[in-house]
Structure formats: C-alpha cells, structure tokens
C-alpha cells in the first residue's frame, strides 16, 4: 500500500519529486529560524515594557516601533544584495549567504562582546547581551538582512527545481516554515528565560548552513544560463531523481536547454524595452496590488505585536496564551495552502482569503469599539475567534500564495529582476507597517486601526475577483 502511495503523481515523496521535497525541507530550516525571530518579539516586547523587564531597561512606544520595524530595514538591504547577486553567484551561494546574519561565529566568545563592534554573525549574541534599545534594533536589522535574502532566493530557486504540478505546494512551504518558527517563537518567548532563547535558536541556522553546504545544488536553469551544461544535466537528474542514462525524461532537459540557450544573452541581460512590454506592465499592476494588500492587511505586522493587540482588545483572556493559540492557527492556514494551492489554484485562495480578512477585522474592530464602552467580559472569547479567523483565512491565500504568485506573474526574461524589485518594495512596506502599527494603535485606537486594514483588503478582494488571472500549472519557461 505504501508503495502505491509513493507511486502517485500527487505524492510529494514519489520517485520523481522526493529530492525536490528534500531540498525544500532543508532550505526552510532558515525560514523556521526567521519565524522564531519574528514570533519571539511579541511576548518579549510586553515584558520589556513592564517593570519586570528581563534587561536593565524598558521600552517606550516609540522605541518599540523602531525595534519592530528594524526587520523591514534589514530586509530591504538583504533584498537588494540578493537581487543584484543572485544571477551572478547562483542559488547555492545565495542560500549559504543568508545563514551568516543568523548565525554565530564559533570563534567569538560571549564575554568578548561588549560594544557595537560585534560582527554581523552576532544576531542572537546581540539579543543575549542587549544593554540598550540599540542592541535589539541591530539584532532585528540583521535578522531582516537574512529574511530579505531568503524571500528573494527561496521562491526563485524552488520555482526552478520544482515540477509545475507541485510548484505551488513547495513555494507555499516557505511561509508554512516561517509560521512554524513564529509559533516556536511565541512559545519560547512566553515560557523560557530571555537569555536561554538565543542558545536554542542557533541550532536552526547552523543546521541549515551545514545541510545547504552538502546537499543543495544550483538549479539546472541557472547552470544552463551560465553555460555549465554538464553540471546543469547533473542538477536536473538530481532534482528529478533520474538515474537512467537514456531516460525519456531527459527530453524535458533538452527542451529547457534549447529554450534558455536560444535566448541566453537576452535572458541574462534583459533590455529596458523588456520591462515595458504589455505583459510586464500588466504584471506590475497586479503585483503592486498584491504587495499593498499583503502588508497593509496587517497580517505580518500584527503577528509581531500579537500579545499587545490581545491586551488592548478588551478580552480578559491571557494575551500570551492567546498568542500561542494564534500561532497554531497560523500554521493550519499555511498548511491549507500547501494542500489546496495546486488543486484549487491561486486566484480562488486569494479571493477567499481577502474576503475572510475583511470580515474578521471588521468584527474585531466592532468588538473592541464596544468593549471600551460596555462590559463585554462574557464575550471575551470573541477577539480570539475573530483573530483566529483573520489569521487562518489570511494565511490560506494572502500569505501562503504570495511568493508563489509573485514569481509566476512576471515574463520569463525579467522574472528574476522584477520579482527582486517587487520584494524590495514589499520589504519597504514591511518597515512602514511595523513602524506605524503600534503608533496607530496608540493614537487612533484598535478599532480604527482594524477598520483601516479591512478597507484596504476590501479593495484587494474586488481587484482579485475582476483582474487576477490564474497561474496554476504555468510553465516557468513561458510568459
């Protein structure tokens, strides 16, 4: 029975796809590490604002907004570097690079770190030895560099090694892994001592670096562009698990080789004209709306401040326990994407997701509005329900499908460059949203903040229904 299951074409562990799945799992170890860094902030910020701060200082609202948004600033740096370097250095070196800001050089001893002369590898050492807000800011900035590079190289690499029928599943596993990390971050930040957490987290980037070094190869498409045809064939055989020398599946490789080499110069160096074709301009418009809705729906920013949101919602439930529950819901949402993305398609998931976000944010805003005026303690479970719906439905489409759709939108000749630019813009939006969300909640109140995010998402819902084309099954060699 197991043998029959493994022979099914939709099984991720079948003979053709098992090494693609293996590579996806390995490179997403860094996604888990990134998620821990995101989730860890939520319960820790509440502690750092209190008189029982684990450090020798506490943070103001303004300082919280800067520590939170430092991730976005670092992500822009990582985006730009990886966007410029990826076509030159290849995915394998790119994947190895993004481990550096998240790792610790073995030669650095903890006691040696006293000031800001610490090397970039010291993300979690900076957190460990934080003596002021600036240490946390720099630590988050370095985490952003790693995540910025990750969000460039992961979607492009996975799209180039995956079969079309499972590309959506593998691409959505990036956000599934991030959300697993976020849940771990919530749990670690709530139940472990502040200075223990960095020592636990370091396991993931170090394991990722070693795994990538020994088990990950450059994609065959990249190697063909570099005219390393023998290496490209080996890579193709590896990721498609082809052992027969004269396998009929190698016709697919020959087609890929012919397509890429017949226009290799244009693919390596697209002209300015290529960025202004009708297909490219249409893709820009769709991508821009996708970016706006992805970030200004608040789905990522609120994850960073989840404990503060529950504390301000009017619910009497424990904010940290609610946050951990939301972390579980978030995983279920992105897991749903991995199951449905290549069955239902991208468009329907985005439509359902945006509609669900509008409904749940509107309901949460109404509850917090009336909770400030009336005694709604008997309804304390309602914010948890609304936030659970918001996170679950948001992750099914707007989060889980985001990078999959973004890569598939652009014409092949400008795909890497256009996707890189789009993700840089996304990181700028991350910085803006992380910076302004705590200020909006403090100055506008939680209801107005929720309703503003719902209004933006409602626009996205209408746009997706009217203007978004399905990209499921699209070949990565076509526009």
TrEMBL record:
<feature type="transmembrane region" description="Helical">
    <location>
        <begin position="323"/>
        <end position="341"/>
    </location>
</feature>
<dbReference type="GO" id="GO:0051119">
    <property type="term" value="F:sugar transmembrane transporter activity"/>
</dbReference>
<dbReference type="InterPro" id="IPR020846">
    <property type="entry name" value="MFS_dom"/>
</dbReference>
<feature type="transmembrane region" description="Helical">
    <location>
        <begin position="137"/>
        <end position="158"/>
    </location>
</feature>
<feature type="transmembrane region" description="Helical">
    <location>
        <begin position="194"/>
        <end position="216"/>
    </location>
</feature>
<feature type="domain" description="Major facilitator superfamily (MFS) profile">
    <location>
        <begin position="23"/>
        <end position="472"/>
    </location>
</feature>
<feature type="transmembrane region" description="Helical">
    <location>
        <begin position="283"/>
        <end position="303"/>
    </location>
</feature>
<protein>
    <submittedName>
        <fullName>CG15408</fullName>
    </submittedName>
</protein>
<feature type="transmembrane region" description="Helical">
    <location>
        <begin position="64"/>
        <end position="86"/>
    </location>
</feature>
<feature type="transmembrane region" description="Helical">
    <location>
        <begin position="21"/>
        <end position="44"/>
    </location>
</feature>
<keyword id="KW-0762">Sugar transport</keyword>
<dbReference type="InterPro" id="IPR036259">
    <property type="entry name" value="MFS_trans_sf"/>
</dbReference>
<keyword id="KW-1133">Transmembrane helix</keyword>
<dbReference type="InterPro" id="IPR044775">
    <property type="entry name" value="MFS_ERD6/Tret1-like"/>
</dbReference>
<dbReference type="Pfam" id="PF00083">
    <property type="entry name" value="Sugar_tr"/>
</dbReference>
<keyword id="KW-0812">Transmembrane</keyword>
<keyword id="KW-0813">Transport</keyword>
<dbReference type="GO" id="GO:0005886">
    <property type="term" value="C:plasma membrane"/>
</dbReference>
<feature type="transmembrane region" description="Helical">
    <location>
        <begin position="348"/>
        <end position="370"/>
    </location>
</feature>
<keyword id="KW-0472">Membrane</keyword>
<feature type="transmembrane region" description="Helical">
    <location>
        <begin position="170"/>
        <end position="188"/>
    </location>
</feature>
<dbReference type="InterPro" id="IPR005828">
    <property type="entry name" value="MFS_sugar_transport-like"/>
</dbReference>
<feature type="transmembrane region" description="Helical">
    <location>
        <begin position="382"/>
        <end position="406"/>
    </location>
</feature>
<feature type="transmembrane region" description="Helical">
    <location>
        <begin position="93"/>
        <end position="110"/>
    </location>
</feature>
<feature type="transmembrane region" description="Helical">
    <location>
        <begin position="449"/>
        <end position="468"/>
    </location>
</feature>
<feature type="transmembrane region" description="Helical">
    <location>
        <begin position="418"/>
        <end position="437"/>
    </location>
</feature>
<dbReference type="InterPro" id="IPR005829">
    <property type="entry name" value="Sugar_transporter_CS"/>
</dbReference>
<dbReference type="InterPro" id="IPR050549">
    <property type="entry name" value="MFS_Trehalose_Transporter"/>
</dbReference>
<keyword id="KW-1003">Cell membrane</keyword>
């Amino acid at each position: 029975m197991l043998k029959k299951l493994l022979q099914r074409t939709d099984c991720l562990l079948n003979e053709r796809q098992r090494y693609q799945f293996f590579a996806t799992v390995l490179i997403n170890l860094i996604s888990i590490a990134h998620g821990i860094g995101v989730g860890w902030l939520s319960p820790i910020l509440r502690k750092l604002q209190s008189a029982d701060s684990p450090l020798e200082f506490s943070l103001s609202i303004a300082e919280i907004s800067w520590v939170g948004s430092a991730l976005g600033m670092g992500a822009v740096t990582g985006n730009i570097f990886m966007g410029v370097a990826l076509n030159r250095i290849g995915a394998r070196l790119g994947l190895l690079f993004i481990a550096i800001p998240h790792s610790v050089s073995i030669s650095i001893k903890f006691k040696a770190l006293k000031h800001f002369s610490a090397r970039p590898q010291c993300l979690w050492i900076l957190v460990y030895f934080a003596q002021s807000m600036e240490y946390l800011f720099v630590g988050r900035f370095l985490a952003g560099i790693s995540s910025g590079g990750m969000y460039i190289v992961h979607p492009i690499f996975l799209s180039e090694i995956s079969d079309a029928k499972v590309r959506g599943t593998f691409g959505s596993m990036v956000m599934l892994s991030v959300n697993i990390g976020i849940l771990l971050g919530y749990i670690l930040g709530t139940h472990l001592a502040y200075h223990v957490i960095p020592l636990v987290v370091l396991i993931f980037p170090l394991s990722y670096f070693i795994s990538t070094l020994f088990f990950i190869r450059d994609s065959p498409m990249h190697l063909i562009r570099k005219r390393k045809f023998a290496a490209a064939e080996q890579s193709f055989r590896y990721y498609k698990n082809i052992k027969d020398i004269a396998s009929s599946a190698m016709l697919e490789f020959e087609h890929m080789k012919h397509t890429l080499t017949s226009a290799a110069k244009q693919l390596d160096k697209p002209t300015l004209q290529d960025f202004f074709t009708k297909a490219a301009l249409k893709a820009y418009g769709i991508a821009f709306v996708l970016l706006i809705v992805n970030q200004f729906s608040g789905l990522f920013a609120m994850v960073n401040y989840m404990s503060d949101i529950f504390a301000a919602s009017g619910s009497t439930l424990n904010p940290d326990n609610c946050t951990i529950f939301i972390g579980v819901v978030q995983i279920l949402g992105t897991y749903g994407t991995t199951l449905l993305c290549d069955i239902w398609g991208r468009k329907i998931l985005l439509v359902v997701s945006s509609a669900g976000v509008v409904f749940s944010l509107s309901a949460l805003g109404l509850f917090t509005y009336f909770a400030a005026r009336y005694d709604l303690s008997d309804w304390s479970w309602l914010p948890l329900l609304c936030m659970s719906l918001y996170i679950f439905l948001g992750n099914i489409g707007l989060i889980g499908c985001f990078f999959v759709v973004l890569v598939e939108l652009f014409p092949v000749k400008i795909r890497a460059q256009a996707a890189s630019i789009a993700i840089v813009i996304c990181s700028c939006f991350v910085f803006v949203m992380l910076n302004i969300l705590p200020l909006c909640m403090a100055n506008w109140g939680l209801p107005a903040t929720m309703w503003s995010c719902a209004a933006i998402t409602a626009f996205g819902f209408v746009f997706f229904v009217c203007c978004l084309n399905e990209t499921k099954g699209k070949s990565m060699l076509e526009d």
